[in-house]
Amino acid sequence: MSAHLEDWLRLLGLEFSATKLGNLLQAFGSPTAVLQAPAEALRRVPGIREADIVAIERAANASIAIPEPLQKGTVRLITQHDSEYPNPLRQIPDPPPALFVWGTIQERDRFGIAVVGTRHPSAYGRMVAERFTRDLCEAGLTIISGGALGIDTIAHRTALECGGRTIAILGSGLGKPYPAENLRLFAQIAEAGGAVVSEFGYFSPPDAWRFPVRNRLIAGWALGTLVIEAGEQSGALITARLAGEYGREVFAVPGNIDNPRSKGCHDLIKNGAILVDSAQDVLDTLRIQREPRPRELQLPMLTPAQEKLLALLTLEPQHLDAIARAAQVPVHIAQIELTTLEMMGLARRMPGGTFVRVL
Asked: Which conformational region is residue 60 in: left (phi greater than 0), alpha (psi within -120 to 50 degrees), or beta?
């Protein structure tokens, strides 16, 4: 296992793009096979240059030490073949072949909302970010952001304060978390059962080019992206643009027309983003079905069949027959279990014999 992990660390340390790494792994099957591949075979892989071949040969012969958090299991490396790998990221054009994870990714995290914005929010921006985050957490959504100062930090902190789930996707390696001021926040996220995630090599520095690359993961993981205060050059606008390209919803909060930090949000609204003034606008657009539940009440224990069916439910209505086929269970069994999930407040029966997930 350590040799396998070492080869992953070697491959990710090459700093190749996700597309290039994906092409190599598709051609050879594993990091070990990539590192052992002859130059002639590497040349046949799309996008591989002579400089890349030299880098691969050097990496194959380099000694490498497994960082202590990976040795102890505090940080784990998950790949696209692992069940923990977030399914929404499998659907974007250039999914990362592997992710470093500090904390825990849960099945429910596929129901996430990205909350992003300026690093220098006004008092209004801070208030709005706290309000939206609190209400979205209350609805059962996971708050996804980039761990940056400003709106990102407010979203993560508010999610923790109200007992919600949050995921920070960094623009650096987990061995050099950025910004350093948020190291304690990242630890709190992991300790609370959330996750701090990076696709970059473990000790990768926070180079400027990494943040737009990172933004595609925020946009791709979430059901939609909510922008709260963003100037014309804000990186949050990159996340919003990518969300639109991926077919996700884009939401923007209007602000003071004389505040430059509202210009980006207003431009988004002019170009088709959904103007929102409450979390309910977001929930209505996403068609979130939810049941009120006391904070102290824990989710009931589910049988394996119920867990399988629940994992298949989305916010889009699906017919009972289709759910049963996907779960590979008889229709009458699926109907009984879905009815049980409905009684637990985890599913809802819709017209036409369809069911949706309840958050």
From this structure: alpha
Supply the CATH classification number for the domain 304-357: 1.10.10.10
In the block, tokens 């598709």 appear at 26
Kindly tell me the sign of the dihedral angle through the C-alpha atoms of 252, 255, 261, 263.
positive
The pair of structure tokens assigned to 109 is 């995290």
Beta bridge partners of 228: 117
Say if strands 354-357 and 318-319 run parallel, antiparallel, or are unpaired.
antiparallel
pLDDT for the residue numbered 357: 87
Alpha-carbon distance of 101 to 84, in angstroms, equals 10
∠ CA 277-280-281, rounded to 5°: 55
Q: In what order do the strands lie in the sheet with 318-319?
A: 318-319, 354-357, 347-350
What letter represents residue 260's amino acid? P
Check residue 79 and give its pLDDT: 96
Work out the widest C-alpha separation in the chain, in whole angstroms: 62
Of the options 3.30.420.10, 3.40.50.450, 3.30.420.180, 3.30.300.130, the CATH number for the domain spanning 88-286: 3.40.50.450
In three-state form (DSSP H/G/I as H, E/B as E, the rest C), the secondary structure along 135-188 is: HHHHCCCEEEECCCCCHHHHHHHHHHHCCCCEEEECCCCCCCCCCHHHHHHHHH
Contact criterion met (CB below 8 Å) for 108 and 314: no
Task: Determine the Cα–Cα distance for residues 75 and 348; give it in Å rounded to an integer.
Answer: 36
- CATH T-level fold of 2-66: DNA polymerase; domain 1 (1.10.150)
Residue ranges of the chain with per-residue pLDDT less than 50: 295-297
